[in-house]
Amino acid sequence: MLEIVLNMIIKGAPGAYSEAAALKAYPDCETVPCEDFESVFGAVELWLVDKAILQIENSVGGSVHTNYDLILRHRLHIVGEVQLIVDHCLLGLPGVQKEDLKCVLSHPKVRVTHRLCDF
């Protein structure tokens, strides 16, 4: 019997939260990483992949307006929803205490998500 594998494009690298969401929705899919949201939409429109998974809401950071704009611009439809719990970890060198930290470097979205944290 011929096995058909669903190709799911994600924005980000392997291991990104978008890949976790894709595998939660379609556990047997093959994920295809992509660098930007515009290319994700283009790949689906050109039938290079079967589906895409995109973040459109963040419970703390709000809407991802870029993706709403792209949904309006392209002739694609939302066909499902995946809710994913996102956990971030603060990593440091062995022996360093949290109280000793003077600066934390991160992606801006992570800082928005953790604006209530006291580092």
Beta-strand share of residues: 5-15%
* Count of helical stretches: 4
Number of beta-strand segments: 5
| Oligomeric form | single chain
State Rg.
17 Å
Q: Largest sheet at a glance?
A: 3 strands, parallel
Q: How many angstroms does the end-to-end distance come to?
A: 55 Å
Unreliable stretches: none
What are the secondary-structure elements, in order, as H or E? EHEHEEEHH
- How confident is the prediction overall: mean pLDDT? 86
Largest sheet, spatial ordering of strands: 2-1-3
Task: Choose one word for the global shape.
Answer: globular
- Structural class, judged by helices and strands? alpha/beta
Q: Helical percent range? A: 25-40%
Structure overview:
This protein is of the alpha/beta class. The protein is built from four helices and five strands; from the N terminus they run βαβαβββαα. The strands form two sheets. Strands 2-1-3 form a three-stranded parallel beta sheet, sandwiched between helices. A two-stranded antiparallel sheet has the order 4-5. The model has no long low-confidence stretch (mean pLDDT 86).
